[in-house]
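Q: What structure does this chain adopt?
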Amino acid sequence: MRAARRPCETNVYHVFARGVGRQLIFEDEEDRLLFLDLMSRFSTRDGISFLAWALMDNHIHFLLKAPLPAISKFMSRLESAYATAFNARHDRVGHLFQGRFGSQGIDSDRHLLAAVRYIHQNPVKAGVSSGCFYRWSSYDEYVGSPASVRHRHGFGAVRESRRIRVVSRGG
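A:
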């Protein structure tokens, strides 16, 4: 029996998922653009706010603000729709994502900043980018760069994260 997800009072979660057997979930730019389109469409439908995100070759990281049931519905729709499209496009069958997505509640401002930093440094640590400016993440929005692919999808990560104070007791 799997453990139930633990709701977080702040409704802010670091969410992550990876390819089954650590296989690639993005083979090219077209895959990533499709995934971003689905992210935008389903997040709007499910009331999900993106605070940060990164698309790696074989896994994803999101920092989301929403109640856990909405995040679960969003991730189910996103992973299912993307896997169906990916499998059709690449002439494959079977699961694309390994198990259920992982989530960790963010319960303090310190934890929030650490999660944003972790997500944006992930491409550097994985060796796919020499700096945090990585096309497939929200980092450039944090530093004010308008050249991101994300701006076509309107996630507004910085705008949303600046409004959030995770801990209501001034912490």
